[in-house]
């Protein structure tokens, strides 16, 4: 809820690679190397797709955290960037649901991804 421009600008001046993740409801034009937009259903109170559409051009990827079958309806089908489908808490039942969903709805830019830091015990 605060401007990240001073921090991102400073880090870029110092030649750092800068990445950020947002739910996509608060637009900021930032000097980033990578931007993940992770829309939430609550964002639909502000925007029809759960995120400000200016993020479509700015995002490097979109990530949807999947908790069950109802979340599959929320996934935006027209995103051209990579779309990460992540099972909540690396839940294997949800991972199987995602795998079946991707197989039934093939798109070249949809990926099942896990939180590897949690698998490695680096919470």
Largest beta sheet, briefly?
5 strands, parallel
| CATH architectural grouping | Alpha-Beta Barrel
Structural class computed from helices and strand pairing: alpha/beta
Spatial gap, N to C terminus = 24 Å
Ranges with pLDDT <50 over ≥5 residues? Answer: none
Report strand %: 15-25%
Number of strands: 5
Look up the CATH topology.
TIM Barrel
Number of domains: 1
CATH superfamily: Aldolase class I
Mean pLDDT: 95
User: What's the shape?
Assistant: globular
* The level-1 CATH class: Alpha Beta
Q: Helix amount, in percent?
A: 25-40%
Rg, Cα atoms, Å: 15 Å
Describe this protein's structure:
With 123 residues, the chain is an alpha/beta fold. It has one domain: TIM Barrel (Alpha-Beta Barrel), CATH 3.20.20.70. It is built from 5 helices and 5 strands; from the N terminus they run αββαβαβαβα. It has helices at 5-13, 55-58, 71-74, 92-104, 116-119, and strands spanning 19-22, 34-37, 61-66, 83-87, 110-112. A 5-stranded parallel β-sheet has the order 1-2-3-4-5. Strand 4 (83-87), helix 4 (92-104) and strand 5 form a beta-alpha-beta unit. The longest helix has 13 residues, at 92-104. The radius of gyration is 15 Å and the shape is globular. The mean pLDDT is 95.
Quick recap:
The protein has 123 residues and is α/β, with parallel strands linked by helices. Helices cover 28% and strands 18% of the residues. It has a single domain (5-119), classed as Alpha-Beta Barrel (TIM Barrel), CATH 3.20.20.70.
